[in-house]
Amino acid sequence: MKKSNPVEKLFIRKVTIMVQEFYIKTNATLPYLRMELINDGRCDYDKFYEAIQDADITFSMKDSETGLLKVSNAPVTPVLAQETGCEEKYILEYRWDKKDTRKPGIYEGWFVIKFRGVVSDEIGAGDLIVPIQEKLMIYVN
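The structure corresponding to this sequence follows.
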């Protein structure tokens, strides 16, 4: 009887990491970094948009090589999307400062939404980090 080798039972699971990419030139302040909030159908969309108007929203960005923060908790304003439909939608918009893009490199960015109250049973109160399932990579060149 052949003994099984524990190494033979190991396998490598391929993991795909979704990435959103944003490109901006060194020392530039345009284009603004915009993140659309998507209705995933899991919570009351209208309540979410009401809550986001009263939330504290910040943007942070760290150097992907060193891990050092380049932007830390900079204020963000939700902007009403330019849509033709009847439903109001908001986009998170970060307006760059020249110091944010002074050094070329690859950075990882994220938004934090701090809700002041309970949005719904699914979301509750507290912080929501956006993007949720993807990384936001920012290329300054």
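The helical segments are 45-53.
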